[in-house]
Design brief:
By secondary structure, the chain is mostly helical. The chain contains 32 helices and 10 strands. A 5-stranded parallel sheet has the order 4-5-6-3-7, with helices on both faces. The longest helix has 26 residues. The radius of gyration is 30 Å and the shape is globular.
């Protein structure tokens, strides 16, 4: 066993923290994080995949550009939709158009695969907006939690920025709308659907049909580039007719012919005709032409490449890297990948770091899955699925240890002959100035669709432990990158699997970690119910420490629900019991929360005493961040008590420490307290300066709408007309901290 990952406070979600700390005092509306301010100079993102050579799409490109020019002249953003069958070349047309615009749109290029055909379902627009915000320079810690707030910030950042956005493989208009930038930006959407609903948003639809026979022959000739098309024009026309003019099918057939320079077109036409007859029953949406070409290409693959093709057809996600292929195939994987790429069966989608990454076209993925079902035995398929699942577990476990080396997670078990040693390790090395921890977090986020797909399928594939082990390993990602939907879903699935398997430790972990996700998403009632279930389970297991930790968790939920008396009682019990059970730091954090409640209830002397005791214990435990927060809490209480000299010492020390740790939101709160202190001393000029500094930090942290920020703005406005240095002092207990619902939160 590797112990518990939580102490007793949602302010203490994990061990060593990189970049920021999650805090869940009594702030209402979700767990928030603090971090460095927005960077002033951020390189423009250039995320578009490379373009490919187009054949006979001149009219479509002209229509797209004409629409852009009209929108520009009218002062509107440009929205264009490119629709058509799978394999018809929608993405290629959109990329060809958008790449020509780069000189005119220096703000950058954003790209998102919206996954309408993805095995795990379409992409969540909230998560896509979060990725866009980070690409535009918003630190992960400052990405708002609510979709509406994310969209508002996205629109604000793009109002004066000229950039292009490609939303590839969209499922619905509702999925697209939150991703539309503001200002005079250009957005292209590709979809198999025409999406007339987007016309209401000023969109223009360009529908792609199959290539004409002449254009398809030209594409075939370009693919071969060896004279066979010129030598056999009739056979070339027959071949592209069998491909139904779909560029994907033509390219696949051409790739097969290119690999066989001595083979005439007649042989390919005959073989493709036979495949058409066999695959008619499998046709969906007119793609039997592609399937016929795919079957021929598959039959011509080297044995290792054909095996990898089948095994990758079992992969539950859309993209994968070379390490996964090595885990499945071993030393032959790189050559096999090259063979699949050369046959146009894989698309190279290298990430921003340049690491090799691949994906199937949707129709190719379906075909690979069919070949796996037909040509691989049940034992081979089951083994491959397990290796895929444990590949992701082993690397998620490594990433977790890189990001939070001190965290005690659930035990990771690997079946014999599966891992972790035979599993290929992903590269978490520093890249472009980013630390190893940053790279590990990036990997977790990039692979999240695959990780979630494994979690969802864990029970069905006979490895239910993967559900809770992967969920637990993902813990460093959830609060740092605010992937709330996956936080909830993964813990629900892990909890169900643990309950079915009777694993008590995993059951308790999924309850407590999952309940913190409920607090993060503003559902404290659901979180409280889960914490209470965990308390019963810990008690039944005889786990006194685990039970004591739930006291603090339940206190946080009560605090969020406005039940301050109940919260205070639970925090007091946790503050007494946890140190006695050996968890001194968790006990100190419980006392911090107790002080926070006392401050909110107007019991300022109790708040000062508890906050000071918490600070001393946290300093002894080596937690300077929360010690600084405790000093700030002491300072607030002292302002309310009129102990102004001590308040100044405590608040100044807290501000210095929090600034050193780039804790922008907490530093802003301390500045607000210093402003209140200045008001009490009859120094309105100094107060105004502090309020302005605080408001600047709130804005840079994306928290201008927080209650503390609104209060600071109101008090600054009230001070602006007056310029006397001696206004009436504020009576104790009537300042903004007297009404503060949560001095411990951030």
């Amino acid at each position: 066993m590797r112990g518990h990952e939580h102490s007793t406070n949602a302010n203490d979600l994990s061990g060593t923290v990189h970049g920021f700390v999650v805090q869940t005092g009594s702030v209402h509306g979700g767990i928030h994080v603090s971090g460095p301010a927005l960077r002033e100079e951020v390189p423009p993102p250039w995320q578009l995949p490379p373009s490919v050579r187009l054949t006979d799409r001149t009219e479509e490109l002209r229509a797209l550009e004409a629409h852009r020019r009209r929108a520009t002249e009218e002062g509107h953003p440009t929205l264009a939709m490119v629709s058509g069958l799978g394999g018809v070349g929608k993405t290629a047309v959109a990329l060809s158009w958008l790449h020509t615009l780069r000189p005119h749109f220096p703000g950058g290029q954003l790209y998102a695969d919206l996954g309408a055909q993805a095995p795990g379902g379409p992409a969540d627009p909230g998560e896509v907006v979060a990725r866009f915000l980070r690409a535009l320079g918003v630190p992960a810690a400052q990405v708002p939690s609510a979709l509406g707030e994310r969209v508002a910030l996205y629109r604000s950042l793009t109002t004066e920025r000229r950039l292009v956005v490609l939303l590839d493989d969209a499922a619905t208009a509702a999925q697209v709308r939150p991703l539309l930038p503001a200002g005079r930006c250009v957005t292209a959407v590709t979809s198999r659907r025409r999406m007339p609903g987007l016309s209401l948003d000023g969109g223009h639809v360009v529908h792609l049909g199959p290539l004409s026979t002449e254009a398809a022959v030209e594409l075939l000739d370009t693919t071969l580039a060896d004279g066979r098309v010129t030598a056999q024009p009739d056979q070339a026309r027959a071949l592209v007719a069998l491909c139904a003019g779909l560029p994907l099918a033509v390219r696949i057939a051409g790739a097969r012919l290119a690999a066989r320079p001595r083979q005439g077109l007649t042989t390919m036409v005959r073989a493709l005709s036979e495949e058409h007859e066999r695959l008619e029953a499998l046709a969906i949406e007119g793609d039997h032409d592609v399937r016929a070409a795919l079957d021929l290409s598959y039959q011509g693959l080297p044995p290792a490449a054909a095996r990898l093709y089948r095994l990758l057809g079992l992969h539950p996600g859309r993209e994968f890297g070379v390490p996964l292929a090595r885990t499945l195939l071993g030393g032959e994987a790189v050559e096999a990948l090259e063979a699949l790429h050369d046959a146009n069966l894989l698309v190279d989608v290298a990430d921003a770091t340049g690491r090799e990454r691949y994906r199937f076209h949707d129709l190719v993925r379906l075909h690979a899955a069919e070949r796996a079902a037909q040509d691989a035995g049940g034992e081979e398929r089951a083994g491959a699925l397990l290796r895929i699942g444990y590949h992701y577990l082993a690397n998620a476990d490594r990433a977790e240890q890189v990001v939070e080396p001190g965290r005690a997670g659930l035990e990771r078990g690997f079946p014999r002959d599966v891992g972790p040693e035979p599993i290929t390790a992903e590269d978490f090395g520093p890249v472009d100035g980013r630390t190893e921890a940053d790279t590990a977090l990036d990997w977790l986020e990039r692979e999240l669709p695959n990780l979630m797909a494994v979690i969802r399928r864990a029970r069905a594939m006979g490895a239910p432990e993967l559900a809770w082990q992967l969920t637990d390993a993902l813990w460093p990602l959830f609060p740092r990158r605010k992937v709330y939907r996956e936080w909830i879903e993964a813990h629900d699935e892990g909890l169900l699997a643990a309950e079915e398997e009777g694993d008590g430790e995993a059951f308790c972990r999924m309850l407590t970690s999952g309940a913190l996700g409920r607090l993060a998403t503003g559902d404290p009632a659901a979180g409280l119910a889960m914490f209470e279930r965990a308390a019963v389970a810990f008690e039944e297991r005889g786990d006194a420490l685990g039970y004591a930790r739930t006291l603090n968790y339940r206190g946080l939920a009560h605090q969020r629900l406005g039940r301050l008396d109940g919260a205070a009682g639970l925090f007091a019990r946790a503050a007494d019991e946890l140190p006695a059970l050996g968890d001194l730091r968790a006990g100190a954090l419980a006392r911090f929360n107790l002080a926070d409640v006392a401050l909110a209830r107007g019991r300022f002397a109790d708040a000062a005493d508890d906050a000071e005791a918490s600070r001393l214990a946290l300093e002894a435990a080596g937690d300077p961040y929360n010690a600084a927060r405790a000093a700030g809490l002491t300072g607030r209480a002292c302002v309310a008590l009129g102990r102004l000299d001590r308040a100044e010492r405590e608040l100044s020390a807290a501000l210095s420490a929090l600034r050193a740790q780039s804790a922008g939101f907490e530093a802003a709160r301390v500045l607000g307290s210093l402003a209140q202190l200045s008001e009490r001393r009859g120094q309105p000029r100094q107060a105004r300066q502090y309020y302005r500094e605080a408001l600047s930090l709130y804005a840079s942290a994306g928290r201008s709408g927080a209650a503390e920020a609104v209060e600071a703005a109101a008090r600054l406005d009230a001070l602006e007309p007056a310029d006397t240095e001696h206004p009436p002092p504020t009576p104790p207990g009537t300042g903004p901290w007297a009404a503060d619902p949560g001095g411990a939160g951030a």
